[in-house]
Amino acid sequence: MKFLKRFWWVFLIVLVVLGGGYIYLQYRQMQQFQSAVAAMQTVRVTKGSIATTVGATGSVRASQSAVVNWTLEGQVGSVLVEEGDTVKTGQIIASLSTSNLPDNVVKAQTQLTTDQQALEDLKASQVDLASAQQAISTAQNALTKAKQKRAWLDSPTRGDQVSITAAQASYDLAKQEYDHLKESYNKVSRLDPSDLKRINSAIALQQAQTQLDKTWREFNYLKGKPTDEEIATAQAAVDLAQAQYDDAVRAYERFKNGPTAAEISAAEARVAADQGVIDSVNLKAPFDGVVTEVNAYAGESVSAGDAVVRIDDLSKVYIDLTVSEVDINSIQVGQAAEITFDAIPGKAYTGKIVEVGVVGSSSSGSVNFPVTVQITDADPSVKTGMTASATITTSTLEDILLVQTKSIQTANNQKTVFLVRGGQPRPVAVQTGATSDSLTQIVSGSLQEGDQVLANPSTLTTAANRPAGFFLFGLLGGGPPPEGGPGGAGGPPSGGPAGGGGPPSTGPNGGAGGAPGG
Predict the structure, then answer these.
(1) pLDDT of 122-145, one tens digit each?
(2) Cα 335 off chain centre by
(3) Do 139 and 111 form a contact (C-beta atoms < 8 A)?
(4) What does pTM read for this prediction?
(5) H/E segment holding residue 394
(6) How many CA atoms, within 13 angstroms, populate the side-chain half-sphere of residue 510?
(7) What is the number of other CB atoms lying within 10 angstroms of the CB of residue 315?
(8) What stretches of 40-160 show up as alpha helix (H) in DSSP?
(9) Are strands 344-356 and 336-341 parallel, antiparallel or unpaired?
(10) Which of 314, 392, 347 is nearest to 61 (CA)?
């Protein structure tokens, strides 16, 4: 019996010691947890804008590049440019020595004179033919007018009824005007001859008299019968116009079987070919640009195909990027890009998308598409061949809810932030949208602008996941699952270790509610 009592006393002492140790351990963990919460930084939920970007790399190239080669063999007579020189289209950049020209150049110089003369002869006949055609048209018009005038003279009057009626009407109007002015003059005729009214009235009356006489003569002429002299003159005009027309037709007949357009084109091609061979002695710049390489010097012997210079058009500078098939449909012409170079540290350039490829190429199991960016503020530091990194802005969202990306935790496909209110963090489930380097859009969740969330909740999660963490959260008043999460809403905290405890509260599958107060 004594042994049994002793056993129970020992058991109770051990149980008290173990229980006290466990409670102390839980208290220390709670203190550490609360210290971690107090030490954690918070960040503010804000509203703003966010840009979605796509990154890619590529190489710089000029707008145009060309290597100019010799087309003849011979000896270099002169090289007229150096690296860095600016050249214009058609500018001579190098020449072969004329003292030792190839045979085909010498022959072309001789043949050019012959072919030019042949072309001039063909074109002269073409000019004659065009002149003959014009002469026929002019003579035809003159003959038609002469015949019409001669035909009018065969009628009883010089004019037809329409022209006679019009002449009569003109005369009647002139007579009325004259009579009116005559009456006005009679009223002022007794005034002094130097009086301005009398002078003006006299001038107007004289002009009316002149017009009246003119219309009367025209009327009488049209009503009159043509004279034999007028008929003879008109007939002579017809005969002359007919002769001139016949001469024009005969001249046209002489030239109409001249050279065809094909013959003219062939003659021009022969002259151009001769000139091209001669001009090949001089190499010319194919476009405006800058000489970036010189590979020839005076006095050296060269063959057809040997490189002379390289010319780059640096008025516009481009970057040829490769973009993954995952991102290519978000890239469009006109989008802005920020460009950086490892070779130009500390400086960023701007650019814009000018071309988006429609056919991808496969390499190492991935498909990429070509995208071309024009650097809009390039300077001499940017050189062709440099490797560039481009960040393309594909879209910009304005006035959206934003949090720091590092404040979001993801577990079991659920994204969560820890909302801090009253000094206590609690998890809130959220749905996210667009992201940038440091910010993420909050699409849904019970967050508002101005809320404070834990900047880096990983420490909190680590502390909460320590052994006996369930009891720790019980001591803190119970931790609900994230609001809006799959576990349903848990009970709110209801007191700490030393606070007055309310009744425990639970939701479906929820965590333990607040523990009774101590």
Answers:
(1) 776 666 677 878 888 999 999 998
(2) 10
(3) no
(4) 0.48
(5) strand 387-404
(6) 21
(7) 13
(8) 103-152
(9) antiparallel
(10) 314
Q: Give the dihedral of Cα atoms 29, 22, 470, 427; nearest 10 deg.
A: -20
Look up residue 5 and give its two tokens: 């009592």
pLDDT tens readout for residues 271-303: 999 888 888 888 999 999 999 999 988 888 888
pLDDT digits (tens, 9 = 90+) for 369-421: 999 999 999 998 999 999 999 999 988 888 899 999 999 988 888 999 999 88
215 and 167 Cβ atoms separated by less than 8 Å: yes
**CB of 312 closer than 8 Å to CB of 294:** no
Up-side HSE of residue 210: CA atoms within 13 Å toward CB? 6
Question: What is the amino acid identity at position 266?
Answer: A
- Name every residue whose Cβ is closer than 8 Å to that of residue 58 and which is 6 or more positions away in sequence: 319, 320, 321, 322, 371, 373, 387, 388, 390
Taking CB atoms within 8 Å and a gap of at least 24, the contacts of 100-107 are 100/74, 100/75, 101/74, 101/281, 102/72, 102/73, 102/74, 104/72, 104/277, 105/72, 105/277, 105/278, 105/280, 105/281
* Domain architecture of the chain: domains with CATH: 53-61+313-398 (2.40.30.170), 71-100+284-305 (2.40.50.100), 112-255 (1.10.287)
- 340 has which bridge partners? 348, 389
Measured CA to CA, the distance from residue 336 to residue 318 in angstroms comes to: 14
CA distance 102 to 108: 10
Judged on CB neighbours under 10 Å (0-12, 13-18, 19+), 125 is: middle
Q: pLDDT by residue (tens digit) across 304-361?
A: 899 999 999 988 999 999 999 999 999 999 999 999 999 999 999 999 999 999 999 9
The structure tokens listed for 295 are 């590979």
The whole-angstrom separation of Cα 143 and Cα 246 is 10
Region class of 265: left (phi > 0), else alpha (psi between -120 and 50), else beta? alpha
Q: Give the tokens for residue 110.
A: 């001789």
Evaluate whether 501 touches 495 at the Cβ level (below 8 Å).
yes
Say which amino acid occupies 349. Answer: Y
Residue 282 tokens read as 């001089």
- Name 313's bridge partners: 64
